[in-house]
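Input record (one chain):
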Amino acid sequence: MAGPREKPIVGIDLGTTNACVASVRNRIPRVVPTDRGALILPTVVALSEKGDLLVGALAKDQLIVNPKNTIYGAKRLIGRTFSSKVVQELRSYYSYEIVEGPAGEAAVLLGGAVRTLPEISGIVLAHLKRIAETFLQREIPQAVISVPAHYSDAQRQAVREAGRIAGFEVRRIVNEPTAAALAYGFSRGLDQKILVYDLGGGTFDVSVLQLSGNVFEVLATGGDTFLGGVDFDNRIIDYVLDDFWRRHQIDLAGSPIAMQRVKNGAETAKIDLSLIPNVVIDLPYVEERKGKPLDVRVPLSRHRLDELTVDLVDRTFEICDRVLAERNLRPDQIDEVILVGGQSRMPLVQEKIRAHFGRPARKGVHPDECVALGAALLGDSLDAIDSVTLVDVLSMPIGIATPTNHFRTILEKNVAIPSARSFRLPPPREPGQPIEIDIFQGASDLIVDDEFLGSIRLPAAATGRRIDFKLDEESLLHVSFDDPAKGMTALSLATRDTPEALRRALAEAAAERSGPQVESGARGRRGGLFGWLKRG
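The corresponding structure, as predicted from the sequence alone:
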């Protein structure tokens, strides 16, 4: 039996909605309970009116009364540039203010001060560190932290930075589906092809893995950064708001306190409908008219919820099929389906899993805990003789911008990592000027729809020299240049300035969005992702 590690290590699932921390003792992983006795911690950071910094449930509790100083959903923003198309579209979705950080990244205002998103996530991670050290009664200097499989290089770097801010030595960044597969198959001697279906609070991931003993090989992966439990909640919220409008001709979206109550009621109803067939969303005195209180009382059945959200569920299976097709696999070739994330508890999801794959999802893997447990197992196996072997893949292509604002792939999707690719530097755009290469990551042929990772700048004399793109085992990018005097020399990516090509492309996209639009619905409501937050 293995003895205790010289430097204890924990596994952390840093989720959109909740976080979870786990540790391993005698090869058995266990979740560490929070200071409130729960097994999960809300990933919310807030500043109280008295100036106190709050984390977790305490922070979430003040969302109604102090929304501008309550930061939630940071996982969707971290590691993105402020100028990116995604961030600009998200700015109006949150009750707090999203601003430009010191390095051109997306940041937030908290108590009038600019806080970077690694700082915000670092506050959550530091709280988890204190929880683990109190529970385990020893210092915890190291961690393995999970991220969505489709996180970009910049987002992974930002999570690693958040861990450093929290006081951790981050030993590994691991993909969430891979960690879940570890929790399922570690030391079981399996020889199976499994699919991990990870439908969490804010993101959807799917990965196909080949398990052979303690070798976990990811065959293909995919996902959607903006498909998760919050989108299911929003469908219920829209349903409730429409009902209240029909009854009273009052739009509750104009009242932050009413909206938070509706949001809480929608989330509770969704959870309850996983267990019972009918609920009533009953919120007394939500609004008033001429001194008379108005209540929300909306019956909701599981069947009606399925009708409201079936398209969201179907989108997850479209992604599953695309990922399988990338490896010429059929659903019936999958031996087991592992469910991860709280939204995967929905009966409709489980029914469609059975119909799509011809078998029910595997029981015995806890959707909320398995990612943290797997991350802890990976951490415990590092440096061990019988350590686990992970063969992961790149979730999104990495490439460079062409002169026509298109994306030229250098590292392909699903290439095994670690990996490397090389190319020759093109001539400068203007004779005698430095060569500038803008690096992006994403699935689109147009750079405006991809994530800007950074730029490299080299003298015109470097034309024709070799550039190496290398991915390490964490899917982090390292760029080097064949310098005639020094050999292969590492280059750092500059991210402060938005490339001119991207500025032009963003401006064109903004112009298209601001053109004539036809609104639908009785009041021109916009549905879908955070649709209710767009009203006012």
